Amino acid sequence: xDCITKQAAPILxxxxxxxxxxxxxxxxxxxxxxxxxxxxxxxxxxxxxxTMYADAHLPRPPGPFSWQSTRFLQHTLVxxxxxxxxxxxxxxxxxxxxxxxxxxxxxxxxxxCGRWLITCVEMRRVVSYDLDTHSEQLLCQSDxxxxxxxxxxxxxxxxxxxxxxxLCTKNSHSGDRMKLLEFQADDDSGHLSGPITSxxxxxxxxxxxxxxxxxxxxxxxxxxxIPSQSRWTRSLMFDTRSQIFYKFPKLGYDANGPILGVMGxxxxxxxxxxxxxxTSSSPSDPFQLIQAYVIPDNNETHELRLSYETSPDxxxxxxxxxxxxxxxxxxxTDPITGSTHTRILHMRQSNLLCTDITLxxxxxxxxxxxxxxxxxxxxxxxxxxxxxxxxxxxxxDGFARGLCASITSAKLLIRKVTIDGTGETCVGVVGDxxxxxxxxxxxxxxxxxxxxxxxxxxxxxxxxxxxxxMEKELLLIxxxxxxxxxxxCVCANGT
Length: 495
Known about the structure:
By secondary structure, the chain is mainly beta. The chain is built from 5 helices and 31 strands.
């Protein structure tokens, strides 16, 4: 705040003005810059925005970190605050449309961080398209035949914002190989620099197998190979801090490796633990387990250590097919007891549940039980509803914004939801039901960006992509994505 003290003497002490401005919504601060040079100096002060970011009761990425610019913090808070004003009170309305059609030679499109659309062209090139800057970037290319690929991102305090692309390639001389490419993301320019390449110690012998990578606000990246003829997968965990791959313990369930469901949302990645829902529908040996793994103290084994385990019956999971899990509040360790507390969201039939997971301090090799407490948050009922899809994005401290989509035979109904999971129990607001403002009943609900209010919709063939944008000031126009494309993308108005 040195730049502020050099201005003319203020009407109020700078410290008092500074504290008053902290109570103003971020999107209402910028007009005050025109009041005087003194106000401009205060509002442009990086300390003000870092304090506001740390204390904001809004969904937002983790931070503030030293590598995050003041411009990024300002833009992020203003966007989220603007959405918060009308998220559950106003319907969605279309302000423009643009549909991106991927060419037949592309292998689907992956949406990363609500910003980058990444696609593989002719199974030789990986291309990204930045929805914020409308810029295109060639990430990598190879002469080898690519069998499968996937993409995700990880945001950490020490290493910055990272984007990962997993590749499974085949070569007539070297056989099949799997690689993990790491890119450093610049949140201001949108440029992805790199990559740093790591060889994944897994094989992809099944030509129709799918590679899947998953991460989040966590130092872990889950890498899974999903065979075409089986619902079981072979998975590894990549620690982005040490650049080491870890395998799951076999635990006697499968001689070829750990048994994991194909749904990536069955695994919750936190800052401290990997929480896994393991299931088997075998009539001879059915089981349901919730387990928590940690990185072992001895890295020589390169195998995750099972630290906690319990039956999911106590938290109301009645079917062997688990629901999608969303991390609502990242792991927090009590400095006195050493216990770790995590909060997740999930569905049971038409009920949206909030579940608290407590892991007691464990400094031994013993496997301790998991304490689970579940309470109902909201109930969604629709006599004509055939299924309910929920997608959320939350901060590490428990503020979430999401959509609940009720799929009927004739239309797709949307409810906008806001959740505050910072207290003892979850508190939420559910908006009214509105039909999706476009003829998209044939489309699938995809990833959701709660920060910007964007949702990705794809057709069953994944050849068409629609982005719904509910932040009224943003007019989204998609271009070619370095490949032949045409059609329309949908931008929706949240007010």
